[in-house]
Amino acid sequence: MGLRALLYRKVLYGVYERRLAAGLRPDRVPRHVGVMLDGNRRWARQKGTDTAHGHQAGADNIVPFLTWSEEVGVEIVTLWLLSTDNLRRPEHELSPLLRIIENVVEELCLAGRWRVNIVGSQRLLPEGTARRLTQCAATTADVSGLVVNVAVGYGGRDEIADAVRSLLQEARSRGATLEELADSLDVSDIAGHLYTKGQPDPDLVIRTSGEQRIGGFLLWQSTHSELYFCEAYWPDFRRVDYLRALRSFADRERRFGT
Fold it and tell me: 166 near 211, Cβ under 8 Å?
């Protein structure tokens, strides 16, 4: 494609992007958006580079995404950076990925713009990684901006198991018997022990890279979420792609299971 054609295409995309942004109604913007940042490894293969470069390219796209979220009025973003399955990857791939995650979380915290929460089974992470992530997030506790949940060592089944475990421990600490707990237990009790307790469930869940499955992301919380699947690999995910997802969400009639 020649230079003139590239410039023309850029201008057209700019016009299209502005129209999408102008057409968003504030009352139809999701309050909580979950994102499965998928496709970093395939992006790297496509570019003929190593996996770590793909993960870094994906990490570099996080701050722009959070900025776009702020611009449209999203209040909470949950980013799935590392699954429990990913923890079984070979050491030569996992170690660089953990360093990239540590660095990007530190960058988010140092920005002072976002309140960062680490969600996931931190007991499954290397001790140094878990400590660094937790300490960074703690420095943002008083920040009043966009809430950013960083899901690291996260799996939906693990989260539910951890919630039940926490619930049982709490019941034991107050002297309740299993029979008493079984008689009184309802869904709100489990919801109150999830990693995202106290937060509204995601209105919109986005998965990049063309895969069309939930993959264990926010299994409990996404019961009534609208799902949006995007063909772009995460490092190539642009503001226009996000605006398309938001437009799709706004055009849907949410039925909440009815």
Answer: no
186 has a pLDDT exceeding 70: yes
Domain-wise residue ranges, the chain: 29-250
Task: Decide if 31 contacts 200 (C-beta within 8 A).
Answer: yes
pLDDT band at 255 (very low <50, low <70, confident <90, very high): confident
Annotation says 86 is catalytic: yes
Please tell me the distance from the alpha carbon of residue 10 to that of residue 5, in angstroms, as a whole number. Answer: 9
Of 86, 162, 189, 236, catalytic = 86
Q: Give Cβ neighbours of residue 190 (< 8 Å, ≥ 6 apart).
A: 160, 163, 164, 167, 220
The first and second tokens of residue 47, run together, are 């570019």
CATH of 29-250, one of 3.40.1180.10, 3.30.930.30, 3.90.226.10, 3.40.50.880: 3.40.1180.10
**Residue 117 to residue 51: CA distance in whole angstroms:** 26
pLDDT for the residue numbered 258? 64
Q: What would the pLDDT profile of 220-236 be if each residue is shown by its tens digit?
A: 999 999 999 999 999 99
Longest C-alpha distance within the chain, in Å? 74
Q: In whole angstroms, what is the distance from residue 112 CA to residue 144 CA?
A: 9
Other Cβ atoms closer than 10 A to 19: 11
Please state the rounded mean pLDDT for residues 205-217.
96
174 pLDDT higher than 80: yes
Q: Are 69 and 138 in contact (CB under 8 A)?
A: no
